[in-house]
Amino acid sequence: MPSSLHVIGHQQPDTDTICSALAYARLKQAQGVDATPARAGEVNPETQFVLDRWDTESPSLLDDAAGEQLILVDHNEYSQAVSGAHDATIVEVVDHHRIGDIETSDPIYFRNEPVGSTATILTQLYEEANKTIDAQTAGLLLSGLLSDTVVLRSPTTTDQDRSIADHLADIAGVDIEKYGKELLQQKSKIGEKSPREMVLSDFKEFEFESHQVGIGQVETVEPEVVLEQREAVLAAMDDVATERNYTVFLLLVTDLLKEESTALIAGTQIDTVEDGLDTTFTEQEAFLPGVMSRKKQVVPPLEDAFN
Amino acid sequence: MPSSLHVIGHQQPDTDTICSALAYARLKQAQGVDATPARAGEVNPETQFVLDRWDTESPSLLDDAAGEQLILVDHNEYSQAVSGAHDATIVEVVDHHRIGDIETSDPIYFRNEPVGSTATILTQLYEEANKTIDAQTAGLLLSGLLSDTVVLRSPTTTDQDRSIADHLADIAGVDIEKYGKELLQQKSKIGEKSPREMVLSDFKEFEFESHQVGIGQVETVEPEVVLEQREAVLAAMDDVATERNYTVFLLLVTDLLKEESTALIAGTQIDTVEDGLDTTFTEQEAFLPGVMSRKKQVVPPLEDAFN
């Protein structure tokens, strides 16, 4: 079978990852490149809401990327990529995270910007390519942008995100605050999940020196729904940490309205995490005032602490 | 001493690296960012010709980047970066090579494109930032572009390089072919060098798996000047390979007019290089028809062969 070109986001896909894969595959197609959107895992309820709202089919699941050609969106490290990525050819990267461990033999297009969402960068790529964005694509891109920036409230939000959100909302014909509230309500639908589903629903794995570290995040307007099940949640975290040989499993329970997080922790080397986050865990729990962004406020200090 | 922000290219700087550092520092300054151009080694004669021609001071030498903030241009791997780069903070990358081993804790601007020169990308960045390019800066950018693409003849040259070269030549007020010929003559001034200077004047180091591999290139219209000194050149290569513990030291002697290269080799694992380049070395020498680009035609197959 000849290899195909897939536009694909990270494992445990979120709305920015799925919408970015869809929107970038469309741009590539408009430029005459035969690219297909793909996903590396199950679509979460918020993303399903977005796909239904904008009448768009989910990208198809890619089980094994070995031998394929990949355009990575919204991630640039192998630990977060679709399985088989090590044996695939990475032909492009568009992302807004730290620079990870992707290396290539050939020069490729690699565009990473410190903005609030990958959708923000893709909107610029449409403009640079002089391709118009239709209302449906604008709706998808806006959803990725608003989801990743918690409706422009996250500290990762830049002026560029704000002005691009306005532009996309115009094309899509929605009101940012009103549509954003609908999205936030979807993010909060966590009460129906099992503790294991809860801790893994927005989950990323990092390699800090030789340590595997898992960091999950639950963004919600009702943190008490999670924290009331503390013991069951911690047991689920313990199970995952043991199965996957994690040095640390950290879960951020982020209150979207108060803009703060409660962290739960499992694993060993808790003191390293305490150093990194400048906090103290009492009974595996710590309060992190002002912390909303895993990427900007948690990953960099933890990486430093482990190094 | 507080850390400063330096825009800096690779070791053994060439014209694209020096001119890119100068032009990007100017763009940053025009955007209100206090960035200084820097270099990681001696300016070669071609680049000195360019600096004189466009009445521009050489960037200052940065001996040790530890503790500094760096914008890397024209490279994105530590083995090619200024010494101390591992202990510096990389805040941006603009490049046109394979993706290397730079990792960061924070999200940064990272722009790599598969085009003929870093100067090509920087010209676009000026346009995207809506900043005008003055004649002097256009002359520097054009020099980087023409030097890296061997006056648009290298197989790395894209349509984008050609159209941007036209645009820059207009602003700078020079004729591409005529100015290009002057540049090529500078590249060819190699007869005056010692064998050791010759093999190290345009030199890059790569890490393929656990192997340190050095690849030098002499681009010239008179390859016989180098090849007549074969034994002295091979002795210099042997010395360097031993001092620096290289598995392989490969030197490409590239005939700019015939668009072909003769490769000389020192070190061990010559069979791996033969596999990678699909050639046979006889008395440490092999003919490589059509090979002009280290980056595109030599590095990728060698990396594959060593992996």
Q: Greatest interface and its residue counts? A: A-B, 28 and 28 residues
The rough form of chain A would be described as: globular
Report the structural category of chain A. alpha/beta
What is the assigned CATH homologous superfamily of the largest domain in chain A? inorganic pyrophosphatase (n-terminal core)
- For the record, what CATH class of the largest domain in chain A applies? Alpha Beta
What is the CATH topology classification name of the largest domain in chain A?
inorganic pyrophosphatase (n-terminal core)
Q: Please count the beta strands of chain A (DSSP E, at least 2 residues each).
A: 11
Q: Give the SSE string of chain A.
A: EHEHEEEEHHHHHEEHHEEHEH
On the 0-100 scale, what is the average pLDDT of chain A? 94
| Rg of chain A, alpha carbons | 19 Å
* Portion in helices of chain A: 25-40%
Largest sheet of chain A: 6 strands, parallel
Tally the structural domains of chain A.
2
Oligomer: homodimer
Distance between the termini of chain A: 43 Å
Structural overview:
The structure is a homodimer of 307-residue chains. Chain A starts with a strand and ends with a helix. Helix content of chain A is 40%, strand content 21%. The longest helix of chain A has 16 residues. The first copy, chain A, has 2 domains: 182 residues, inorganic pyrophosphatase (n-terminal core) (Alpha-Beta Complex); 112 residues, Roll (Diaminopimelate Epimerase, Chain A, domain 1), CATH 3.10.310. In chain A, the strands form 2 sheets. In chain A, strands 3-2-1-4-5-6 form a 6-stranded parallel β-sheet. The first copy, chain A, has a 5-stranded mixed β-sheet with strand order 7-8-9-10-11. With 307 residues, chain A is of the alpha/beta class. Chains A and B meet through strand 6 and helix 11 of A and strand 6 and helix 11 of B. Chains A, B: One of its GO terms (molecular function) is metal ion binding. Chains A, B: InterPro entries: DDH_dom, DHH_sf, DHHA2, DHHA2_dom_sf. Chains A, B: Its EC number is 3.6.1.1. Chains A, B: Keywords: Hydrolase, Manganese, Metal-binding.
